[in-house]
Design a protein that fits this description.
Elements (H helix, E strand, L loop, with lengths): L26 H4 L7 H16 L4 H5 L9 H23 L11 H7 L7 H20 L3 H5 L1 E4 L2 E4 H23 L4
Antiparallel strand pairs: 1-2
């Protein structure tokens, strides 16, 4: 799995979202994101997550830290599905689509996803593809698009809040993978 860098423009600086740009619930994720260079953060996270996942055995992907929890492949699949949905929301809002966007039930998505039956390497490749697409989407937004707002899951959201939410959600789940799934034995 060779990883080349995704180049981001140095001139674009996207301010952190203000609390009124997202539902208070999402602060649990957005507050995890350090700094204010969200494009560099998304790219750095991709590399860090790939590093965490590289060299893992198939049994690592099948492991659960508790009987009622997703296995590691399902957790990574959830990360991919959620990022796709949040990026789709960001795209629609960035393009000034004012149609309210529906929510989704994460447990149904995991239950109906093929993650548990796929090789870990394929789920990792999916993560890489999703993150690259997300970075490309955000890298190609103009300044006006970043501050646009729309309604997603009955909450007003800005595009920049969605970018930070994607990064914070990934960080939250990577920490769970590090602390509960891939604890050095």
């Amino acid at each position: 799995m060779s990883e080349s860098a995704v180049v981001t423009p140095a001139a674009l600086v996207v301010a952190r979202p203000e609390p009124g740009e997202y539902a208070p619930y999402y602060d649990r994720y957005i507050s995890l994101v350090p700094g204010s260079d969200i494009l560099a953060t998304l790219d750095s996270q991709r590399r860090q997550t790939v590093l965490l996942l590289s060299g893992r055995e198939e049994e690592d992907g099948d492991s659960r830290y508790a009987p009622d929890k997703w296995n590691a492949k399902e957790a990574l699949g959830h990360l991919c599905d959620t990022e796709r949905i949040f990026a789709y929301r960001a795209l629609r809002i960035a393009r000034a689509d004012q149609t309210p966007i529906e929510g989704f039930e994460q447990d149904d998505y995991v239950r109906n996803g093929p993650f548990a039956n796929r090789p870990l390497a394929e789920v990792i490749e999916d993560y890489i593809a999703v993150r690259r697409a997300t970075i490309t989407l955000f890298r190609n937004l103009d300044e006006a698009a970043w501050s646009r707002r729309g309604v997603a899951n009955k909450n007003e959201m800005s595009v920049r809040a969605l970018a930070y939410l994607i990064a914070g959600h990934e960080l939250h789940h990577r920490r769970i993978l590090e602390e509960k799934y891939f604890v050095e034995r």
